[in-house]
Design brief:
- The chain has helices at 16-27, 39-53, 67-81, 104-131, 152-171, 216-228, 238-249, 251-263; strands at residues 7-11, 31-36, 57-61, 86-89, 135-139, 178-183, 187-188, 214-215, 233-235.
- It has 272 residues and is an alpha/beta fold.
- The protein has a single domain (7-238), classed as Rossmann fold.
- The strands form two sheets. It has a seven-stranded parallel β-sheet, sandwiched between helices.
- α5 links the parallel β5 (135-139) and β6 (178-183).
- α1 (16-27) crosses α6 (216-228), α4 (104-131) packs parallel to α5 and α7 (238-249) packs across α8.
- The longest helix has 28 residues, at 104-131.
- The model has no long low-confidence stretch (mean pLDDT 93).
């Protein structure tokens, strides 16, 4: 699939992987419809993209947990560009708390943003994507293959996204629609700083050393290549690939590895 001159929606575009995706897709010549909750951050990003790449950029402030705003995102994109070729469902939030301690409202918030945001945006972009034989991308996680301790809502939402997108792929098997499920491992971004704690407040500083993690720019390049070559699934780190392999052949060992790894985090809610 040629990315040049395609029309691409990116949710969660104001920071992290979403921001890197905006730069990567602009570099490859895509016309961009960028969505995030912060209008100010979107406008700053739009100015940078126009300055560096002379990109054609639409910004649509959007809370993906609200269906009407997702419909507006698709409508505004169609009004501005006349088509939708690529939808990258990137918007998402994380959490860090044991299920026994976490408030139910936190799990609902994760499902509203991560899962329902993907459902809403896909619902309203899909007719044009079918017409143009385009691509739908879900940015999920290794947590969507095997549950992560202290991330029950996050893992549940990522499992749900994978099941949903696999179904969309099969339903449109003969319509030329491409569905890519991209699962980064731990990525250097702000997602952990905004991760929700047991009562729903952001945790603040990341509990992990991010200096050795894959950068969001590298993740964006790999996702863009996955779109270009119409890949089915991509696991975006060696540790992630090993985890998915172990999930299939050594799941009990993987349980213990995940438990021990999460227990070693600073201020971990898991106590050995």
């Amino acid at each position: 699939m040629s990315i040049k001159n395609s029309v691409c929606i990116i949710t969660g575009a104001s920071s992290g992987i979403g921001r890197s995706l905006a730069f990567e897709m602009a570099r490859r010549g895509a016309k961009l419809s960028l969505a995030a909750r912060s209008a100010d951050k979107l406008n700053e990003l739009k100015n940078e993209l126009e300055q560096h790449y002379q990109a054609d950029v639409l910004t649509v402030p959007t809370d993906v947990s609200i269906e009407e705003q997702c419909k507006n995102l698709a409508d505004q994109t169609l009004k501005a560009f006349g088509r939708i070729d690529i939808l990258i469902n990137n918007a998402g939030i994380s959490m860090r708390a044991l299920f026994v301690d976490v408030e139910i409202k936190v799990l609902k918030r994760l499902m509203d943003v991560n899962f329902w945001g993907t459902v809403y945006c896909t619902k309203y972009a899909l007719p044009s994507i079918i017409e143009n034989k385009g691509s739908i991308v879900g940015v999920t996680s290794v947590a969507g293959f095997h549950g992560l301790p202290a991330r029950s809502g996050y893992s549940a939402s990522k499992f749900a996204i994978q099941g949903f997108l696999e179904t969309i792929r099969i339903e449109n098997l003969k319509k030329g629609v491409h569905v890519l499920i991209a699962a980064p491992g731990f990525t250097s971004s702000n997602v952990r700083k905004s991760a929700l704690t047991a009562d729903g407040t952001p945790q603040g500083e990341s509990p992990r050393n991010e200096s050795r993690m894959m950068t969001s720019d590298k993740v964006a390049r790999k996702i863009a290549n996955g779109i270009r070559f119409r890949r089915r699934n991509i696991i975006l780190s060696l540790k992630g690939k090993i985890s998915v392999l172990f999930q299939r052949v050594l799941p009990i060992l993987l349980d213990r590895l995940f438990y021990n790894a999460m227990a070693k985090e600073p201020d971990s809610p898991i106590k050995n």
